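Subject: Predicted fold for Phage XkdN-like tail assembly chaperone protein, TAC, 140 residues

User T.R. writes:
Posting the sequence so we have a shared reference for the thread.
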Amino acid sequence: MNDLQLFFAQNVESDIVEEFVVSERFKNKEGKAVSWKIKAITEAENETIRKSATKLTKGKNGIKVPETSPEEYLSKLIVASVVFPNLKDAQLQKSYGVIGSDELIKKMLLAGEYSSLVEKIQKTNGFNVDINEIVDEVKN
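User M.O. replies:
I've generated the structure tokens; pasting them so everyone works from the same file.
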């Protein structure tokens, strides 16, 4: 195999899924904390998420400039990365009294748990910087 073939799609690890205990509050029948499954996403998927969290706003002299909502971006990143539990499940959403995966994740988790999940998802996706740096980057 020549060096270039090392980069061919079939030779690259692409299905990266990690397990992570987001909270000790979610327990199985034996009373053990349940692990969530988190997958890595591609930059193409990340770009789609970033664009969906970006709106045009009026800047100086009425010029429209793109502005990304860091909260919306992170929420959508979580939804795209969490494999288990299925955040899109209607019954799960109904049990929390919400409609939509973005709203569900905010209702399910405590603030610190949410932050821990965001941090784990960023690491899984290859972001090797602090969450605040990511938020600042998204804002710009």
